[in-house]
């Protein structure tokens, strides 16, 4: 079988494919229908004779704004005094769900 064959179409995405030799390793060709992009890092684990491949979870990218600080007119860092604020009063008693009449 040269191409992956989709089996049991009403059960979701289940495919049959063959493992092939790639250098000193074996490889598994994943069908395009799975939507996996080339170069995606995967984790492969074996559980009770079954192999499970999952994409590595990517850490969210952080935006570095150090290069822009001071470059925008009117944008300046807050002083320590400007960062202070008074906590506004809250009606926490309204959140009390216990019934005092019991």
Task: Indicate the topology.
Blueprint: E1 5-6, E2 15-16, E3 19-22, E4 25-28, E5 42-47, E6 50-55, H1 80-83
Antiparallel strand pairs: 1-2, 3-4, 5-6
Tell me the strand percentage band: 15-25%
How many individual β-strands? Answer: 6
| Helix share, percent | under 10%
Head-to-tail CA distance between termini: 74 Å
Q: Please describe the biggest sheet, giving its number of strands, its sense, and whether it closes into a barrel.
A: 2 strands, antiparallel
Describe the structure.
The longest helix is centred in the C-terminal third of the chain and has 4 residues, at 80-83. By secondary structure, the protein is mainly beta. Helix content is 4%, strand content 24%. The protein has a two-stranded antiparallel ribbon. A hairpin with a 2-residue loop joins strand 3 (19-22) and strand 4. It contains 1 helix and 6 strands; from the N terminus they run E-E-E-E-E-E-H. The protein has one helix at residues 80-83, and strands at residues 5-6, 15-16, 19-22, 25-28, 42-47, 50-55.
Q: Which descriptors apply to this entry?
A:
102 residues; 1 helix
What can be said about this structure in brief?
The protein is mainly beta. The protein is 4% helix and 24% strand.
């Amino acid at each position: 079988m040269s191409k992956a064959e989709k089996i049991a179409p009403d059960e979701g995405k289940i495919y049959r494919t063959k493992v092939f030799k790639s250098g000193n390793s074996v490889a598994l060709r994943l069908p395009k229908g799975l939507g996996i992009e080339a170069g995606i890092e995967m984790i492969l684990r074996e559980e009770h004779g079954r192999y499970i491949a999952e994409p590595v979870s990517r850490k969210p990218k952080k935006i570095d704004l150090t290069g822009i600080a001071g470059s925008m007119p009117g944008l300046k860092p807050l002083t320590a005094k400007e960062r202070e604020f008074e906590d506004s009063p809250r009606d926490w008693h309204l959140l009390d769900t216990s019934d005092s009449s019991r």
